[in-house]
Design goal:
The structure holds two protein chains of two kinds.
Chain A (H helix, E strand, L loop, with lengths): L4 H37 L5 E8 L13 E4 L4 E6 L4 E8 L2 E8 L7 E6 L5 E5 L4 E5 L5 E5 L12 E6 L5 E5 L4 E5 L5 E6 L7 E6 L5 E5 L4 E5 L7 E2 L11 E6 L5 E5 L4 E5 L5 E5 L15 E3 L4 E6 L4 E8 L1
Antiparallel strand pairs in A: 1-24, 2-3, 3-4, 4-5, 6-7, 7-8, 8-9, 10-11, 11-12, 12-13, 14-15, 15-16, 16-17, 18-19, 19-20, 20-21, 22-23, 23-24
Chain B lengths: L1 H26 L9 H8 L3 H4 L4 E2 L1 H4 L40 E2 L1 H4 L11 E2 L9 H8 L1 H9 L5 H5 L9 E2 L10 H6 L7 H6 L28 E2 L1 H4 L22 H6 L3 H8 L3 E2 L17 E2 L9 H8 L1 H20 L12 H4 L11 E2 L10 H6 L13 E6 L2 E6 L21 H5 L9
Antiparallel strand pairs in B: 1-3, 2-4, 5-7, 6-8, 9-10
Classes of the chains: A mainly beta, B mainly alpha.
């Protein structure tokens, strides 16, 4: 029996409807898949959740105006106990803080910025002598980072420094208005001049893509230079409406930028493109609040360590979405 | 065809009638009787007759067009003005501010023309309220005083401010200067003259900024140098800092940044660099010149400005907060209508620009470059804390909020202000005290 014309028309309409449903379902599925990572990893939703504070060394000695803090993926936390002219080494694993062993090096006073390289060597900027020291993983003095092979001018005054994933050392040389790039051995590789129109650079950072970031505390701006580029240009507009006096900058492994607002007692979060994503924490004395914070460090687990200088402690937070 | 032409002429005639009637209406919008105009106004405004005898009369007043500026019946603005008093002059004097000006006189920007001009008539040219510099010095009192007292005068200033400055706006120079500063100076001071070279130790200064050494308004030093002169400049020993005048880079300094200054100021420099904390601009590329002039300055210690301006150049956030707090305090005091509100919202040393009251400007062993390690001792210099509180304080009293900090003035106050009275960080004293004394929290 041949199907009637009416029946065949109904059949076609039915199959079209089914196809349309399938296409709609596919579109929804694709949209859901696409929106999933956007929603999950967007910096907009990053918040700081307070975990605990570090007040003492392993012998019960209190921290005094700590300005430096460094961390790594091996649960190592090193604190620059600036007011006591010493470093303290902790282990922070599974939200448990252990040790707090003192590292006292004769050559080091007033540690204001710290870094750890992939070999576990500790680097500290001495704020008094304005020199960068390299310590062995056991905390013994290894030598100074003297930028061997540096071109003229030979004088450099490091305001801050950072070490990238390949152990290259980036020094913010305020005296000659440049960023010095040294290899893992401390030998000169290249220099990146500061841009023409800047106020004062107080810190620098290098993200996982190798992009250099500089924070200008006077202009309240972040400048950047892509990897292999010698041209530093503004990444953000003036951020004064979100912060007061930025003095420290760091990034997480996704490239989100965190700027420490020293005078405002807060952290400003920026996207990789410099877009404002939010502001976290406030000024105060209680735990979870900051009082003239200094350096900040984030490890691969999203744990945040902030040298809360005015409160003579280091505070630990975790990043939550 | 003829009919079409008729219609055309009729139409054109109609348009002409409309145009003329509209123009007449504009000219005589109040339908005054012929010849009435200003004369009519003067019938009541009798005192004006005397004023109009002045040699310089504003054109609309002269032609009796009082209604150019005033409405005869009613107005939303004072003095029956036809428009906002800050905009009315622009109706005729629109081009007073040129396009792309480099500087504009503040009063012009505000439309406050009557600060300088009489809108009706005056004894002075351009219907100015006063003649010559007298008018300018009414507002620019500091300059007026300095000019009067200056031992060594600059003759163009004597002749009149407008010799160098535009009264309204300038397209060429800052500070309303008629030209770029150096270009303006060299238009009188010929740089190729032997005397000019001799005075400048043969250095090629023809394109340099003259105002880095000279006070154009006159000073107490010969050569109208600023009152405070750097010793090598006074001694004409330029080579202490610069290459020799015959060098191709004669104006280049021998060393960069602080390294140059260290040659003479070694004691101060060594002291600075031996402290735990340095004021970082001292060690940057510009170094000492971030705050000090190299040659001469009207300020003591050759500072580039008064301390409030100088420190505020970088610490913008601190100064902006101070301004906001001062304004808030003023508004609250005004709203109190004579009732005294206790407690200041601002800290006097900052308001007065005395940052050095609490901070060292070069370096310090203490955090925030404070002059004392203990803020109790620091504050004690001005405040007798024992008179306002019997709260235990000092190195032995631990802050209950944090075992690593001790009770001191900054445990309850913030020296740069908070927005609340007594510089406390909370709206009420109860809020403050219950931070630690939690048992009393309601």
């Amino acid at each position: 029996m041949k199907p009637s014309k009416q029946h065949s028309a109904k059949g076609i309409a039915h199959s079209v409807r089914i196809k349309a449903r399938k296409v709609t379902a596919f579109i929804f599925l694709m949209l859901a898949i696409l929106s999933f990572p956007i929603k999950t990893f967007s910096a907009e939703t990053v918040k700081f959740r307070y975990l605990q504070s570090v007040y003492f060394d392993d012998k019960g000695g209190g921290l005094k105006q700590p300005e430096g803090v460094a961390c790594n993926e091996k649960s190592l936390l090193v604190v620059g106990d600036t007011g006591n002219d010493r470093l303290l080494r902790y282990s922070y694993q599974d939200r448990s803080l252990k040790a707090g062993t003192e590292i006292k090096v004769q050559q080091l006073s007033n540690p204001i910025r710290l870094q750890i390289n992939s070999k576990g060597e500790i680097f500290a900027l001495d704020g008094k002598k304005r020199r960068i020291l390299r310590l062995n993983p056991d905390g013994t003095f290894k030598g100074y980072v003297d930028a061997e092979g540096i071109p003229s001018p030979s004088t450099f005054v490091p305001r801050s420094f950072k070490i990238d994933r390949n152990n290259n050392i980036y020094i913010l040389d305020v005296f000659s208005a440049r960023v010095l790039v040294l290899n893992a051995d401390g030998k000169y590789q290249k220099q990146i001049p500061f841009p023409k129109d800047y106020g004062f650079f107080s810190d620098l950072s290098v993200d996982s893509k190798g992009t250099l970031l500089l924070v200008d505390c006077i202009k309240a701006m972040v400048f950047s230079a892509t990897k292999d580029s010698n041209n530093v240009s503004p990444l953000t507009k003036n951020l004064r409406e979100y912060l007061n006096f930025p003095t420290s900058i760091t990034t997480d492994n996704r490239g989100t930028i965190f700027v420490v607002d020293e005078n405002g007692g807060g952290i400003v979060i920026l996207g990789q493109d410099g877009s404002f994503q939010g502001r976290q924490l406030n000024m105060g004395w209680n735990e979870g609040l900051l009082y003239f914070p200094s350096q900040m460090c984030i490890n691969d687990k999203g744990e945040v360590f902030i040298a809360d200088r005015g409160n003579s402690r280091v505070q630990i937070f975790t990043l939550v979405k | 065809m003829i009919l079409r032409l008729k219609w055309f002429f009729l139409f054109m005639g109609l348009i002409l009638v409309l145009v003329f009637s509209a123009a007449y209406g504009q000219q005589n919008k109040f339908k005054l009787k012929p010849g009435a105009q200003g004369k009519l106004c003067l019938e009541c405004h009798d005192a004006f007759k005397e004023k109009l005898k002045n040699p310089f009369v504003h054109t609309p007043v002269k032609t009796g067009e009082c209604t150019e500026c005033h409405h005869p019946h009613a107005s939303s603005h004072g003095k029956l003005l036809d428009e906002d008093p800050n905009k009315i002059c622009n109706k005729c004097h629109e081009g007073i501010v040129p396009k792309n000006p480099k500087s504009i006189h503040k009063v012009v920007m505000e439309g406050n023309c009557v600060k300088c001009h009489d809108p009706h008539a005056s004894k002075n040219k351009f219907v100015l309220l006063k003649a010559g510099n007298e008018l300018c010095f009414d507002c620019h009192k500091n300059i007026g005083n300095a000019v009067t007292k200056a031992k060594f005068k600059h003759s163009p200033v004597e002749k009149g401010c407008v010799g160098c400055h535009e009264p309204h706006a300038s397209t060429k120079g800052k500070k309303l200067l008629k030209n770029d500063l150096t270009a303006l100076c060299v238009s009188c001071h010929k740089t190729d003259q032997p005397n000019f070279s001799k005075q400048h130790m043969n250095y090629p200064v023809a394109k340099s900024d003259c105002s880095s050494c000279h006070d154009a308004h006159g000073s107490n030093r010969a050569g109208i140098l600023f009152d405070n002169v750097h010793t090598p400049v006074a001694n004409k020993t330029c080579t202490q800092c610069h290459e020799t005048s015959t060098s191709p880079d004669a104006l280049k300094t021998k060393k960069a940044g602080f390294e140059l200054c260290r040659g003479c100021h070694s004691t101060m420099m060594n002291d600075t660099f031996n402290k735990n904390r340095i004021h970082w601009p001292v060690a940057d590329k510009v170094g000492c010149l971030n705050c000090h002039e190299p040659h001469a300055s009207p300020q003591k210690k050759l500072l580039t400005g008064d301390m409030k301006t100088l420190c505020g150049k970088c610490h913008i956030d601190t100064m902006a907060t101070q301004e906001k707090l001062a304004e808030k305090e003023k508004q609250e005091n005004a709203a109190a209508k004579g009732r005294v509100i206790k407690g200041a919202m601002t800290h006097n040393p900052i308001q007065e620009g005395n940052c050095e009251g609490c901070h060292f400007s070069h370096a310090s062993d203490n955090a925030f470059l404070l002059k004392q390690a203990s803020t109790v001792k620091l504050c004690e210099a001005c405040h007798d804390w024992s008179k306002h509180t019997n709260h235990p304080m000092g190195e032995k009293i631990i802050d209950s909020r944090n075992k690593n900090i001790t009770m001191q003035c900054l445990s309850c106050h913030r020296s740069h202000g908070t927005g609340y009275r007594y510089l406390v960080p909370f709206p009420t004293v109860t809020d403050l005290c219950t931070q630690c004394h939690k048992q009393y929290k309601r």
